[in-house]
Each structure stands twice: as structure tokens, then as C-alpha cells.
Amino acid sequence: MLADPSVSQLVADEDGELVGFITCGANRDEDAAPEVGEVRTMFVVSGRWRSGVGRALLDAGLDELRRLGYSAATVWSFAGNARANAFYEAHGFGRDGAERTEEAWAHILEVRYRRSL
User: Fold this and answer.
1) Reduced to 3 DSSP states, what percent helix, strand and coil does the chain have, rounded to the nearest 5?
2) 57-112 per-position pLDDT tens digit
3) Dist. CA 58–CA 60, nearest whole Å
4) Which of 5, 30, 65, 75 could cross-link with 70 by S-S, CB 3.0 to 4.6 Å?
């Protein structure tokens, strides 16, 4: 994934310890318009939740998508992940109605969020 020039990964570290990362870039959804980028993954270690790390990573990832020329962004999240979903909603994302399940995630329902940049 990191060898793909259409994908960027940004990391957050604290005193040399990785505390989070975000991966974003070209959208993989078949129905995505060319101007819509994707937040592909985002992770913050649980000990750093609610410390500003997630906000900083998301802001940097969205800035990177803007730099790459995208005017909107999507992110997939598990429907039952209330913490992550509240985070995305607090940062301007809203559900766009798309849902999916994937074998790789044990067919747990995912919902897609979207926001303009």
C-alpha cells in the first residue's frame, strides 16, 4: 500500500513512540467520483484517546487529501463503533447511506461517511 503513489501515510509519535497513524489517498469505492479521496485507515493507541492525537491526524490527513486535489473525503467505519462514529461526526462527516460487509472483517456491517474538504 505504501508503495502506491496515490496513498499517503502520516504518523504521530511521542518521544519516539508511535501513538497513531492515518492513511489516505485515492478512493477505492467503485461509485466514487474522481474528486473524492478516502481516509483508508486511522488508528490511535487507546492510551492517547481524547488527547488531541486523533484530531491532529485527521486534520493532517484531510489537508493531505486537499493537497492531492480532492474536494471531498469518505471514510468507512463499523456501524456499531459508536466512539469512532461520534468522532467522525464531530469532525464534519455524515453517513451517506452506503453500507457493506466484507469477509476480511467477519461480515461486520460498515457504513460510509462523507464530508467536503
Assistant:
1) 25, 40, 35
2) 999 999 999 999 999 999 999 999 999 999 999 999 999 999 999 999 999 999 99
3) 5
4) 65
- Give the residue numbers spanning the domain of 100: 7-116
Single pTM value for the model: 0.91
Residue 110 in grid coordinates = 460498515
Cell matching residue 41: 485507515
- The domain that holds 15 is classified in CATH as 3.40.630.30
- Please enumerate in sequence order all residues whose Cβ is within 8 A of that of 18, keeping only pairs 6 or more positions apart, or say none: 11, 12, 45
Q: How far is CA 26 from CA 10, 11, 17, 63, 93, in A?
A: 15, 18, 28, 14, 18
What's the grid cell of residue 97? 447511506
**Cell match 461486520: residue?**
108
The arrangement of strands across the sheet holding 72-78 comes to 7-14, 17-26, 36-44, 72-78, 110-116, 94-100
Q: Which of 61, 60, 21, 91 is nearest to 113 (CA)?
A: 91
